[in-house]
TrEMBL record:
This is DUF2911 domain-containing protein. The lineage of its organism: Bacteria, Pseudomonadati, Bacteroidota, Cytophagia, Cytophagales. Residues 1-16 form the signal peptide. InterPro entries: DUF2911. It comes from Dyadobacter luticola. Keywords: Signal.
Length: 170
């Protein structure tokens, strides 16, 4: 009986791990070096699917989990400066608050949570916000069907639909 229950638990756990890759918004990772720091962003990548994203699916002036499913995770192995403000080495949930002319990116010390609550608001606990920075969105050179992050030598860029938002890191 116990052996059967253990086998069922292990098979369900293994299936749950494999299942993430088959989600409509599969897990993705962007990683790279900025100066001497290794930056890694783990996120779930939703698709446009003919929808208007910013200002509709993702409302302006409302905090967003910066991806789908679980909250997006931003990790740095060294202290860095993000848009001129210090962020200590560590792992953070990354949230964004899109605006038509300016975005906020919020680094939060709580990690591992689902990105939204039942009502649709983010699961972000504001008391655990570590850093908030501003960035300017721009029209991307091409349409990006899937949300993607890219770590470059100058920081990271969020790209989705017809928008890209670069965030400077030193």
């Amino acid at each position: 009986m116990i052996l059967g229950a253990l086998c069922m638990f292990l098979s369900v756990a293994a299936w749950a791990q494999q299942d993430k890759a088959s989600r409509p918004s599969p897990p993705m990772t962007a990683s790279g070096k900025v100066g001497g720091a290794t930056i890694t962003i783990n996120y779930s990548s939703p698709s446009v699917k003919g929808r208007k994203i910013f200002g509709e699916l993702v409302p302006y002036d409302k905090v967003w989990r910066a991806g789908a499913n679980e909250a997006t995770i931003f990790e740095t192995d060294k202290d860095i400066m993000v848009e001129g403000k210090k962020l200590a080495a560590g792992k953070y949930s990354l949230y964004a608050q899109p605006g038509e002319k300016e975005w906020s990116f919020i680094f939060n010390s709580e990690t591992g949570q689902w990105g939204i609550k039942r009502g649709g608001d983010t699961s972000k606990d504001a008391s655990k916000d570590v850093l908030t920075v501003k960035a300017k969105p721009a029209k991307s050179a091409s349409m990006n069907e899937k949300l993607m992050y890219e770590v470059t030598s100058k920081g990271f860029v969020l790209r989705w639909e017809n928008t890209e938002v670069p965030v400077a890191i030193k």
